[in-house]
Write a structure and sequence with these properties.
The longest helix is centred in the middle third of the chain and has 21 residues. The termini are close together. The chain is built from 9 helices and 14 strands. The chain is globular. Strands 1, 4, 5, 6, 7, 8, 9 and 14 form an 8-stranded mixed sheet that branches. It has a 4-stranded antiparallel sheet with strand order 11-12-10-13. Strands 2-3 form a two-stranded antiparallel sheet. The protein is α+β, with helices and mostly antiparallel strands. α1 packs parallel to α2, α2 crosses α3 and α6 packs antiparallel against α7. Bound molecules: (3R)-3-hydroxy-3-methyl-5-(phosphonooxy)pentanoic acid. The site of (3R)-3-hydroxy-3-methyl-5-(phosphonooxy)pentanoic acid has 14 residues, from α2 and α4.
């Protein structure tokens, strides 16, 4: 079974967990699902019990055994899915991202959503989007829970574990926004988001942000319902700054930003002064996601591409949820 699952960009970030292994978040998060950055994952049932095989596509396209940092959580996740399905057969998983991985472009979101749905279907299950979100979250990636749906999606903080899954706030066609991703760093980021979540509560600003979140979440839900970028933009920028404020003041500190990050942030502010509404956000990495309406896309993309620090601009948009495909990766 082959599945294509989208990445997403968080407007309100998931940062800090009650239970990291199962990605039970300390706070609710809201994201926009993307159409162009995605992961394709093929799950094949091997007729006998045995070790699962986890393959990851390299930049050149060959499938190679996945590095331990990816393979270990995937093995654990497949074991849990197999028990849930009441099956014993091993699985062969092949996964490919169509965008640079591990540099703050949420490859864990699309990666775990894709392989969760592919494995569940291969094991004979047919999860609803809510069930897919629940099981994607149980992989250990909170952002993957949001990639189970298209459009605008909220993952609540949740109280009971089995009820902590994402739900859609609005479909992709409710409001089309652009996400122009300015790539200023292609090397894998130094510190994983897993370590970032672990260290987050050591920042003196961690609890303060949690106090500010109910108002931010309300404002983002309202701005999405009203298709109001002027109301959404300042909140999504405040959220990005606070995420990085917390990483930089955690013990030990984490600096995801590169000099290019600041240059892009400057360019976005200048665009606004000149009358082009565009707003910037970053996940756990140096690259900057610039959010704007389609009518501003050309002007914003051109400005970003003209900066010497920008290696590439990926043009993305609001997109649909995961889907099963006929092609196979293996
Ligand atoms: O899903 P994880 O564990 O990779 O954490 C995601 C963390 C951020 O991307 C920084 C924020 C988010 O909500 O997507």
């Amino acid at each position: 079974v082959t599945v294509r699952a989208p990445s997403n960009i968080a407007f309100v970030k998931y940062w800090g967990a009650r239970d990291l292994q199962q990605a039970l978040p300390r706070n609710a998060s809201i994201s926009m699902t993307l159409s162009e950055c995605y992961t394709r994952s093929t799950a094949t049932l091997v007729p006998e019990p045995g070790p699962d095989e986890i393959l990851l596509a390299t930049e050149g396209g060959d499938l190679r055994p996945a590095p331990e940092a990816f393979a270990v959580p995937v093995h654990r996740h497949l074991e849990r899915l197999r028990r849930h399905a009441g099956r014993v057969e091993a699985l062969r998983i092949a996964t490919r991202n169509n965008f640079p991985s591990d540099c703050g472009l949420a490859s864990s979101a699309s990666g775990f959503a894709a392989l969760t749905l592919a494995a569940m279907r291969a094991l004979g299950l047919d999860p609803s989007p809510a069930e897919l979100s629940l099981w994607s979250r149980r992989s250990g990636s909170g952002s993957a829970a949001r990639s189970a749906h298209g459009g605008y999606v909220e993952l609540p903080a949740g109280s009971a574990e089995p009820e902590t899954y994402a739900h859609p706030l609005a479909a992709a066609d409710h409001w089309e926004l652009c996400d122009l991703i300015a790539i200023v760093q292609l090397d894998p980021k130094g510190v994983s988001s897993r370590d970032g979540h672990l260290r987050a509560p050591t920042s003196p600003y961690f609890e303060r942000r949690l106090e500010l979140l109910p108002a931010r979440l309300g404002a983002v839900r309202r701005a999405i319902a009203d298709r109001n970028l002027g109301a959404l933009g300042p909140v999504l920028e405040a959220e990005a700054i606070d995420l990085h404020l917390i990483t930089m003041s955690s013990e030990p500190p984490i600096f995801y930003w590169r000099p290019g990050t600041l240059e892009v942030l400057d360019a976005v502010r200048n665009l606004r002064t000149e009358g082009s509404p565009a707003f910037a956000t970053m996940d756990a990495g140096a690259n900057v996601h610039v959010i704007c309406e389609p009518r501003e896309e050309e002007a914003v993309a051109e400005r970003l591409a003209g900066l010497a620090v920008v290696q590439r601009v990926i043009r993305d948009r609001t997109g649909a949820g995961p889907r099963v495909e006929e092609v196979s990766l293996s």
